[in-house]
Design goal:
Elements: E1 11-15, H1 20-31, E2 35-40, H2 46-56, E3 60-64, H3 70-83, E4 89-91, H4 107-132, E5 158-163, H5 178-198, E6 203-210, H6 229-235, H7 245-256, E7 268-271
Parallel strand pairs: 1-2, 1-4, 2-3, 4-5, 5-6, 6-7
The structure holds NADP nicotinamide-adenine-dinucleotide phosphate (NAP).
Residues 15-16, 18-22, 39-43, 66-68, 93-96, 116, 163, 165, 210, 212-213, 215-218 line the site of NADP nicotinamide-adenine-dinucleotide phosphate.
């Protein structure tokens, strides 16, 4: 029997789905027939995704949604669920990097990395879990956060897959990027923690940790010492190249499939051309 990945009738929500790895994830889900919702913050990807939408004959909806703006995130969860349909798969992908020695790093830089890479995916996951459980998407008061349904075990049959990084596992070199590394280690751990919390609702949550992927994120090392970074990164990758974003996109689609991943939760999948084997 051929193995097929068929997302017809499924709706997928991807943050930062219009560029880089996010666009590759959008493309892979579009090929698999999903209805897609993507968010962006700085570059409106409507033109790019309308071509994809035409090519694969799937609807792709775009929302402006800065991940650090929790109010807007909650609003978009409600809005998109109403306008497009209930979401089956959530892929918190958006992220930012910062090459900076800790001694030189300002509070606002640290805040920016943590808010975008760690808090934003966590608040997005919380918003979706609450929405799926029939609660208000926002936690309106810490004294009275609302109550999920009690009693029988639920099977919401939802999938969450966060895009983390091997930087949450090993210290990348020669660049200094402590904030990024910590944000990704935190994100991988958040997925493991939530897998335990939400298994009873039928929500699985996993992460994927790519090595170096050829996107805007790594294309401009700083002038001077940064000139040699890309050579070192490639040399430290046994397959002697960076990933193409499509290789990450296709794996994400496999990891979210209700057929192939129903018993997988709390797992972090490393996809790094062998980088972490050395
Ligand atoms: N490239 C790598 O080598 C690599 C390796 C491991 C993990 N990753 C992770 O993979 C994910 C995607 O990275 P990439 O390489 O594709 O980077 P990228 O090409 O720089 O794209 C970043 C994406 O994140 C979105 N984004 C940034 N800040 C945001 C914010 N505050 N709110 C909402 N969206 C925001 C951007 O939206 P706009 O287009 O609107 O700016 C864009 O879609 C990130 O989580 C990154 O940490 C990357």
């Amino acid at each position: 029997m051929p193995v097929t990945l068929d997302y017809n009738g499924k709706t997928v929500f991807i943050t930062g789905g219009g560029r880089g790895i996010g666009l590759a994830i959008t493309t892979a889900f579009a090929r698999a027939g999903a209805t897609i919702i993507i968010t962006y913050t700085s570059k409106d990807p409507k033109e790019v995704v309308s071509q994809l939408s035409e090519e694969y004959k799937v609807p792709i909806h775009v929302y402006h949604c800065p991940g650090e703006n929790t109010e807007r995130v909650n609003e978009v969860i409600d809005l998109a669920s109403r306008e497009v349909g209930e979401v089956d798969v959530v892929v918190p992908n958006a992220g930012v990097s910062l090459w900076r020695d800790c001694v030189d790093m300002s509070d606002s830089e640290l805040d920016w990395i943590m808010k975008t890479n760690l808090y934003a995916p966590m608040t997005l996951c919380r918003g979706f879990a609450r929405h799926w459980l029939g609660m208000s998407t926002a936690v309106k008061s810490s004294e009275d956060p609302g109550k999920p349904p009690v009693g029988e075990k639920l099977n919401l049959n939802k999938r969450i897959l966060c895009v983390s990084s091997i930087s949450g596992i090993v210290n990348m070199n020669p660049q200094r990027q402590v904030a990024y590394n910590v944000s990704k280690a935190g994100l991988t751990m958040a997925c493991k923690s939530l897998a335990g919390e939400w298994a009873k609702y039928g929500i699985t949550i996993n992460s994927i940790s790519p090595g170096y992927v050829a996107t805007d994120m790594i294309k401009d090392p700083p002038p001077g010492e940064g000139r040699e970074w890309a050579d070192k990164w490639r040399k430290d990758t046994p397959v002697d190249r960076f990933a193409d974003a499509s290789e990450i996109g296709r794996m994400v689609v496999l990891m979210c499939s209700s057929e192939s991943s129903s018993f997988m939760t709390g797992h972090d999948l490393v996809i790094d051309g062998g980088f972490t084997t050395y």
